[in-house]
Amino acid sequence: MKITIVGAGNMGTGYGALWSAVGHDITYTYSRTEDGLRAAVAATGGTARYEVEPTEAASGADVVVLSIGWAQLDDVLRRLGTLTGQLVVDAISPLTADMGGLAVGHTTSGAEILAARLPGARVVLALQNTFAEIVHAPTRSVGGRTPTMLFCGDDADAKKTVSGLIVDAGYLPVDVGALPMARYVEPACFLTVALAYQQGLGPRIALTLLTDVATPAPR
Question: Which residues of 72-100 are buried (b: 16+ CB within 10 A; e: fewer)?
Fold first, then answer.
C-alpha cells in the first residue's frame, strides 16, 4: 500500500518505520527543511522516500496520514489541495500551543473540522492515543499488554483499511463509530497527555480496552 505521511516528526517516522517493515511503500513530506525529510527516510532504514511538495507526495497515495501539529493545519491543507476521493487519516491531536488543553472540543472536534475542509476526502480519526516513545519501541506492549487504538469515521471501507494499518503497527484497533465520536476520542487522548506530563506518569502509558469480544491480534 502506498502511504504518504505528512509530517516527518517522531510520530510520523515511527509509524513509517513500522509500516515499512511489513512491506508498505512510505513517502514522507512536509518538514521545516529538506534535511528533515532525508533524516526521516534514514530513520525508516532507508526504505522510504520523500517528496518536498505535499501535493506531489499525496498524488496517487492509497492513504494520506496527517501527523502534524494543530497549528500547522492551515498551511498543510493549503499545500495539499482537496484530496478528493482519498483516504485521509487524521492523526492530529488538536491541542493548544502549550499542550495544556484542547483547542476545540465538546460541540465539534478536530476531525470534523478537517473533514469539513476536505469535503471530498474520506477522513478517519486514528493513531492519536499513543506516544512516540511507544511507537518507536521494539514492541507496542506496555505493562505486558497490547494498547488499544481508537478510531472512527463515516466510510466503512476506509475504516477497514485503517484498522489493518493499526494492526500492522502493533496495536489493537477498536472502531468507536462515526466521525462525530472524535469529540470523545480527542479528549481521551488529551487525558493521556495530562497524565503523562502534568501528573508525572511519563509517556510509557497507554489506553487498553478490556472486553470479552474478540479483537484482531497484532502482527
Answer: ebeebbeebeebeebbbbbbbbbbeeeee
Q: Which three cell numbers stand for residue 126?
A: 486514528
pTM, entire model? 0.92
Tell me the average pLDDT across 50-71: 95
First to last CA, the chain: 16
Instruction: Tell whether the torsion through CA atoms of 82, 83, 87 and 93 is positive or negative.
Output: negative
Quick one: 173 exposed, middle or buried, by C-beta within 10 A (0-12, 13-18, 19+)? Answer: buried
In this predicted structure, the answer to whether residue 219 has a pLDDT above a threshold of 50 is no
Distance, in Å, from the CA atom of 165 to the CA atom of 124, rounded to the nearest integer, reads 12
How much is the pLDDT for 91? Answer: 96
Tens digits of per-residue pLDDT, 139-156?
Answer: 999 999 999 999 999 999
* 25 C-beta neighbours (distance < 10 Å), count: 15
Nearest by Cα to 170 from 21, 3, 7: 21
Q: Which amino acid is at 116?
A: A
C-alpha cell at 155: 466510510
Alpha-carbon distances of 26 from 3, 166, 194, rounded to whole Å: 5, 15, 31
Report pLDDT digits (tens) over 88-144.
999 998 778 887 778 887 789 999 999 999 999 999 999 999 999 999 999 999 999
Instruction: Say what the pLDDT of residue 202 is.
Output: 96
